[in-house]
Design brief:
The chain has about 230 residues and is an all-alpha fold. The chain has helices at about 10-20, 20-40, 45-55, 60-70, 75-85, 85-95, 95-100, 105-115, 115-125, 135-160, 175-185, 190-210, 215-234.
Length: about 230
């Protein structure tokens, strides 16, 4: 009995699943850390896993939960998370060639599964002469979201057996986990201008304006995304 031959789309999907594996291991580490931190804010394993499946954005989830922990309110937490993900608008806009002519469900699936890791890997594979298109992106994203949901839920469930982080002076872990996520987004000198603009505006708003720091984060994220967009298309 012989296996049925795979279609080009299936082969590309499997390559995406395979090639993303080293990055998925790193995502699992972030996921466990986020699960522990989310549990510290009263989120159980099912809710944490559901949040990961629906949002699928580690940095935005960390910021949103941190804002909830600071008492900023649910609306501001959601807005802060969305602002941090403005870069995804630019990333998915750059995928119009991959999304063009596809049915709506494929466009929505590809958009939801697009992350920094599989987006960068797709372009790196192309630059190296490999074949990497829509299904390669989806294959990588499928691996990442599965690992993210599982690891965040596992971390939240495991947190029940651990002492309270804040009581142990470990509440700095939110900041540490977020810094780890940021380092994975750094792409060299070309990242410096939007990062510098974003950090300067966010810090200036937080220090100089009588507003919740979340508004500074939102303003900085929008400014940084704008600078990145102008540089990309300039």
């Amino acid at each position: 009995m012989t296996d049925e031959p795979q279609t080009p789309a299936a082969r590309e999907f499997r390559r995406g699943l395979r090639d993303i594996t080293p990055l998925s291991v790193g995502v699992a580490v972030y996921g466990l850390a986020f699960g522990l931190l989310a549990a510290g804010q009263g989120m159980g394993a099912p809710l944490t896993g559901l949040m990961g499946a629906l949002v699928f954005a580690g940095s935005a989830q960390i910021v949103a939960v941190e804002r909830l922990a600071s008492g900023a309110g649910a609306l501001l937490a959601v807005v802060a998370g969305l602002a941090l993900n403005l870069r995804l608008l630019l990333m998915t806009a750059a995928l119009r060639g991959e999304f063009g002519g596809r049915p709506l469900w494929q466009v929505m699936l590809g958009t939801h599964l697009t992350s920094d890791e599989n987006w960068v890997l797709m372009h790196a594979t192309r630059n190296g002469g490999g074949r990497a298109g829509y299904w390669y992106l989806v294959g990588g994203g499928t691996s990442l979201i599965a690992v993210w949901v599982a690891s965040t839920a596992l971390g939240a469930g495991f947190a029940r057996s651990l002492p309270d982080l804040a009581a142990r002076g470990m509440d700095f872990a939110f900041t540490a986990a977020f810094i780890l996520l940021l380092t994975s987004l750094w792409q060299g000198r070309q990242s410096l201008p939007p990062w510098a603009i974003s950090a300067t505006i966010a810090a200036g708003c937080a220090v100089l304006l009588p507003l919740d720091p979340s508004w500074g984060l939102i303003a900085g994220a929008m400014a940084g995304a704008g600078v990145a967009g102008m540089r990309r298309h300039g």
